[in-house]
Each structure stands twice: as structure tokens, then as C-alpha cells.
Design goal:
seven-stranded mixed β-sheet, 245 residues, 21% strand, alpha/beta, Rossmann fold
Amino acid sequence: MITIKFDKLPIKAGHKILDIGCGSGRHICAASRLENVVSIGSDVSYDEVVEARNRLVNQDKLGLNGGGPWATLAADITRLPFPDDFFDMVICSEVLEHIPDQQTAVQEVTRVLRPGGDLVVSVPRFFPERICWALSQSYHQNANGHIRIYKKKELITLLEGSGSRLWASHFAHSLHTPYWWLKCLIGPTREDSTLVNLYHRFLVWDMMKKPWMTRFLDHLLNPLLGKSIVFYLRKEEHVRSPYFS
């Protein structure tokens, strides 16, 4: 399930892309399919990093890699092990809603991004997420779960406060919203619901086959029901590391 739109971004051969909070590798795998880019996936969970690496290895075996090198590592978003201004693009998808120290996290992803580089951030959208919280306490109270719900202006203020400027945004994954409402209503940890399991099978089928009808329906419903909101920002040229005196 790819949340960001790579075709909106001015990615060139040789660009270095960081997917921080890469999880099992959905965006880092998509990035590594681009022609001759350097792709690095990082997550605080070692198990997720291993899964992302295995997916990248399999992608290489299938000949789907775009020809550029890739790497994975375990790292904390609030203490990134990279030099200042190192990356041409940073992806931070569905991560910030989990992070207690959101200010430091945003400063770090901005620090490692070069001036003029693009920062892409996605978080759960306020309205669908608020309903999930209302339907189920366990949805957001489990370990490493969501600790906040962002309002659009609030997150823009946070991101732009570290020296990037918003240039585009969109909603994504409207077809996933009813699934999560239903899952929260039934019980997020239950696996015996026929209706939830059928909906999940439909979503997997949709992601694999990408039929035009569901793509059109998703696009049509995104402004109303989009599960995620995606922000595209560009780091200002004069921004320097907060660690410089």
C-alpha cells in the first residue's frame, strides 16, 4: 500500500532517499525500484528492518530493483545516525503519531535533509482516526500505538517550524477507512470476524490487481473518507542544523 506519490517528486538518478519508520518496507521497496537512486530504510524495530531487508532482497532476485544501491538499519527517529544535509528526500509515513517527542523527530528528519530537498510526511487523518478512537480504546492504547490525532494546521505548523515549506498535500486510502472502522467496532485484535476478513481480502486483492474501477472510486472518495493525509514539503535553503552554534 503506497501512500505517497513518487511521480509528484523531482527525483533524479543518484538521489539519496531515506524512508524513516520504514516498517516492513512498502515505501523503501517502491523507492528502490526508481532508476539509480540510493535507498535507505530505517526503523526502530529490528524485526521490521529484517522484514524490509528480506523484501528488498526478493525484489532484487526478481529483477525489480532500479539499479541503485540500498541498505537497511535500525535507528531511532529522534537520534538519526546520519550527517547533516545528507539526503535528497526523506519519507516519514505513518510515524509521527507514534512518537512522544515529536518536536525532536521533526528536527532530526529536517536536519538530515539537504536544503532544497523534499520531506514527505503522512499521518492518519483527523476525522477517520477520531472515529477509530471512539469505537475502540484498544486501537490506540496498545504498545507503540497511536498517541495523538493530528489536525491539519497543527501538523503543518510543526513541520514548517523546523524550516520546511509545504508545497502540496492530498488524502489517501479512502477504501481502507471503513475497514478500520469495522475492525475497531468488532475488536482490533479479533481474527475470527468473517466480515472483517472478507474486507481484508478485498483490500489485498485491490492492492495487487489495481483495477481501474476501485482506483477511480478511491480517488473519488479520498477528499471525504481518505484514511491518511500526505504532506509534501521542501527544506528552505538557509536552514542550518540546530546543533550548529
